[in-house]
Amino acid sequence: MAAELVHYAVADGIATLTLDSPGNRNALSRQLVGELVAGLEQAAGAAASGAVRGIVLTHTGNVFCAGADLKEAGAHGVEAGAHDLVTILRTILTVPVPVLARIDGVARAGGLGILGACDIVAANTAATFAFSEVRIGLGPAIISLTTMPRMNSRAVSRYYLTGDSFDAAAAEACGLITVAADDVDAALEPILAGIRQGSPQGLAVSKKMAAATMLAALDAGAEQMMELSSRLFTTPEAREGMAAFLERRKPSWHLPD
């Protein structure tokens, strides 16, 4: 029996979902996706009785989420992976309580799409972020639906087009995260305290209002972006880019240093 990759726990009205697949940098494998969605749905069910007032997504190891599981992409089909990512984002946006992310390390590609869907994101000042798709022949297709509404347009252009890593201060300044702090748990304490004071009905209505615009954009654009993502994964450039990444070498299109 496969080891559990997402751990679920509830304390003081907050459900915590911990991604625990450090061996592949918490990449979005089919198993991790299934357990993450199940955990979100379990928390949503507990919210109906008032037992859960908020959800925190966090991680073991030094990577929150590296995005798509490139090793699985060929075996299970890129269409399935695209659908899985949309399912995660839509579930985060529709659960009736706030979803917070606690980042104490690295977030890349699809992991940034998850952060965009979350209502509140707190990250350690040492955390780093990158839209790395452009460097492996892809583009931030599906995750554009949850990151573009959060970020200012200059930051979108810079980080989408370069794939450069940026720190938590820059992520906060451009709107991708809510707060950067040396002690991420201390930064979350007053936020969680405020959420605990919300009534179940008040939280559900307020969450629905806060997420409405992004949810509408996701529903309107998901099919187009899933098709684009799936098509890009099958191109020669993407196959070369993913192979180069897995083999730890420069892709064929890399210009001489």
Your description of this structure?
- This protein is α/β, with parallel strands linked by helices.
- Helices cover 50% and strands 16% of the residues.
- The protein contains ten helices and ten strands.
- The strands form two sheets. The protein has a six-stranded mixed beta sheet, with helices on both faces. A four-stranded mixed beta sheet has the order 4-6-8-9.
- Strand 2 (14-19), helix 1 and strand 3 form a beta-alpha-beta unit.
- It starts with 5 loop residues before the first strand and ends in an 11-residue tail after the last helix.
Task: Give start-end ranges of low-pLDDT stretches.
Answer: none
Let me know the largest β-sheet: 6 strands, mixed
Work out the number of β strands. 10
What spatial form do the alpha-carbon principal axes imply? globular
- Strand portion: 15-25%
What class do helices, strands and sheet pairing give? alpha/beta
* Spatial strand sequence of the major β-sheet: 1-2-3-5-7-10
What order do the SSEs take from the amino end to the carboxyl end, as H and E?
Answer: EEHEEHHEEHEEHHEHEHHH
- Rg (C-alpha, Å): 18 Å
* Averaged pLDDT: 95
Q: Tell me roughly what share of residues is in helical segments.
A: 40-55%
Oligomer: single chain
Instruction: For the record, give the distance between the C-alpha atoms at the N and C termini, rounded to a whole number.
Output: 47 Å
* Number of helical regions: 10
